[in-house]
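Final report, results section. Input specification for complex C-07:
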Amino acid sequence: MSLPIGPPAARPCYAVIFTSVRTDGDHGHAEAAARILELARQQPGFLGFESARQEIGISVSYWSSLDAIEAWRAHAEHRAAQERARDWYRSFRVRVCRVEREYGF
Amino acid sequence: MSLPIGPPAARPCYAVIFTSVRTDGDHGHAEAAARILELARQQPGFLGFESARQEIGISVSYWSSLDAIEAWRAHAEHRAAQERARDWYRSFRVRVCRVEREYGF
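Structure output:
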C-alpha cells in the first residue's frame, strides 16, 4: 500500500466492501490474494485498497466507476479466483457502494 | 454481533466506512469504542456493524438513510468521542456510501 489509508479523494469514487469469514487452513489463499491484489492494481479505474482481518476480514477496494468494477469482476483470472470462494470462505458478502462524501485527517 | 457478517440486506442501505491508524497506547479508546458501538446500536436506522484491525482498522456501520447517519454524527455523546479523535488516531478517514448492490453466501 502506497498510502497509510485508502486512495486520494477522487470523484466519483466507488467502494467495494468485501467482508468474509475464512475456512480453516490456507488452501492457497495467501498466494492467490496477493496475486489478485497485484492484478487489481493494474486495472483501469483502480484507486486504492485497504484490508484488515480479525474474526472477520474486511477488504475495501476503490474504483472510479461501476464499469471499472464490472470489468474487474469479469476479468478471467479474477473469475477463476472467485470460483475458489468456497474453499477459502465460510461466508462472504460483497457490497458495491457509491462514495457520497468523505472526510478525515 | 448477531450475524457473522453484516446486516440483512435492506434497501436503501448506506455504509459508513471508518478507516484508521491508531496512536500508541489505549488512552481510554477500548472503553469508549465499546460504549459508542452500544449507543450506535440504539439509534434509529442502525442496521449493523463490522470491524477488524491489523496495521489499519476498518469499521463499517450500516444505516437505513443519510438522515440517520447525520443524526448519529450529531449525537452529543458521539460528538464528545469525535473530539478525542486525535488522542486515538494518527489518521482516519470516513467515507459515507450508498450501497448499490450486494451479494454473497
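DSSP finds four helices and four strands in chain B. The radius of gyration of chain B is 14 Å. This concludes the modelling results for the funded period.
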